Amino acid sequence: MYARDEESAFEVLLARYRKPLFGFLFRYLGRPDKAEDVFQDVFYEVVRARKSFRPDSKFSYWLFRIARNRAVDRLRRNGFREMESLDQGLYSDGEEGESRVSRVVGNDLDPEESASQSELEDCLQECLAGLPPEQREVFWLKEQSGLTFAEIAEMTGVSQNTVKSRLRYALEKIRGHLTERGFKP
Fold first, then answer.
1. Residue 75, SS3?
2. Which residues pair with 89 in a beta bridge?
């Protein structure tokens, strides 16, 4: 549908993939402003290259492959990954307000649950930051995109067994880190 210039199909695709794609890019790049820039680049590429999309292919694979390639290019260009504190406000205009942690944690929890959830989120972020980049990439691709092991293998240029191994090691490290910090995974 979209490849045939149906504008409403683009709106459906944007609505369907905005959250998982932005989540993947944010975790890959570490900053919401960079993730938004790359997100826009990705959808520009989707518009520009829509005629090259093969209908026998899975759209999510094509989309996340473009996103990964753009994110890798952005990291190469910048030379490093920058992280913003989860305690920082959501908006960069200097206004006091809701923090990133409060957005993750949610406001519907009681204070004790909220504190526990915040500690868990901090522990998980710390663990993920400490993973080797290859394991972190496979973890986020599997978590955010819903791609198969075969698709992730093709996208990253490694075998399916390597993808499975990287994911297994990532999950073991996460589980071990959470256990060391007193959480039951």
1. helix
2. 99
Which residue has 């406000």 as its token pair? 89
Q: CB under 8 Å, gap of 24 or more: what pairs does 2-6 form?
A: 2/50, 2/53, 3/50, 3/51, 3/53, 3/55, 5/50
Q: Which two tokens stand for residue 52?
A: 């090259």
For the chain, how big is the Rg over CA atoms in Å? 18
Condensed to tens digits (0 to 9), the pLDDT of residues 117-132 reads: 677 777 888 888 889 9
Higher-confidence residue: 114 or 135? 135
CA–CA gap between residue 170 and residue 163 (Å, rounded)? 11
Integer Cα distance of 27 and 140 in angstroms: 7
Count of residues in the chain? 185
- Assign 168 a pLDDT band (cuts: 50, 70, 90): very high
Helix (H, G, I), strand (E, B) or coil at 37: helix
**Chain centroid to CA 65:** 13
Per the listing, tokens 């899975």 go with: 58
* pTM across the whole model: 0.60
